[in-house]
Specification:
- The protein folds into two domains: 195 residues, 2-enoyl-CoA Hydratase, Chain A, domain 1, CATH 3.90.226; 50 residues, Lyase 2-enoyl-coa Hydratase, Chain  A, domain 2 (Orthogonal Bundle).
- α1 links the parallel β2 and β3.
- Helices cover 50% and strands 16% of the residues.
- The protein is of the alpha/beta class and 260 residues long.
- The radius of gyration is 19 Å and the shape is globular.
């Protein structure tokens, strides 16, 4: 489908999504929320795609919800209800697709923008990028992101950062466990490609199932999760990629995975 708020390119089994409202620092309006959801949903179903990269155009990643539109809304409560649900659908698509999603944080990520970052599996950021939950600063209770943030940094730190709308650098985010890698701005794309290339070569079914298990591990009790791990390993053992993997190991060569 045509996209007005996104630029999408599929290159060598990796989907690149650029948030494209640079004049509003790529902030979420209803259209961006809808278009991003549909793009993610289509990518989720495409078995040829092995990984996804999300980045912002212009000077930032995503400034959160579009505050001008919030201010202009006649029924602000209903607008925020609709907008947060739109963003939540994107978050759910990212977390439930069995493909790794890389956030390339090229600048500011605030509010829902930070929530979008936190929903991704690998976070690579310009070390000078600024991040923050932002909601409290405009008199708004957080509409997304509190669960991810708290699980990563712990209760007291979550209170410190969320309740005071504390702004922090990507480098600080790396220190507290939010960001995987920080780099100079001119190395951001190169570093993203290093990760993308790993996923081009790795077995996509096994990678996808591993992502699913990581997510389920945060909600399952031990016995339930061990049983799920056993069933998932059994399923993966029936793939041609497993057959190729063990053959390559035995023959002391690099495997070639086909995603079957």
């Amino acid at each position: 489908m045509p996209q007005d708020t996104l630029q999408i390119e599929i290159r060598d089994k990796v989907a690149y999504i650029l948030l494209n409202r640079p004049e509003r620092l790529n902030s979420f309006d209803m259209k961006l929320g809808s278009e991003l959801y549909h793009a993610l949903h289509d990518i989720k179903k495409n078995v040829e795609i092995r990984a996804v990269v999300i980045k912002g155009t212009g000077k930032g990643f995503c400034a959160g919800g579009d505050v001008k539109e919030m201010h202009a809304a006649t029924n602000k409560s209903q607008y925020l209800r609709d907008l947060t649900r739109s963003i939540h659908r994107c978050v759910i698509e990212i977390r439930t697709m069995e493909k790794p999603v890389i956030a390339a944080v090229n600048g500011a990520a605030f509010g829902a923008g930070l929530s979008l970052v936190l929903s991704c599996d690998i976070i690579i950021a310009d070390k000078k990028a600024k991040l923050g939950t932002a909601f409290i600063g405009i008199g708004l209770a957080p509409g997304c992101g509190t669960q991810f943030f708290t699980k990563i940094v712990g209760y007291q730190r979550a209170c410190e950062y969320i309740l005071t709308s504390k702004v922090f650098t990507a480098k600080k985010g790396e220190e507290i466990g939010i960001v995987n890698v920080t780099v100079d701005a001119d190395r951001l794309d190169e570093t993203v490609e290093e990760f993308a290339n790993k996923f081009r070569m790795l077995p996509p079914i096994a990678v996808g199932k591993a992502k699913m298990l990581i997510n389920k591990s945060m909600e399952n009790d031990m016995s339930t999760h061990l049983e799920l791990e056993s069933k998932t390993a059994s399923y993966a053992a029936g793939t041609k990629d497993f057959e190729e993997g063990v053959a390559a190991f035995s023959e002391k060569r690099k495997p070639t995975f086909t995603g079957k």
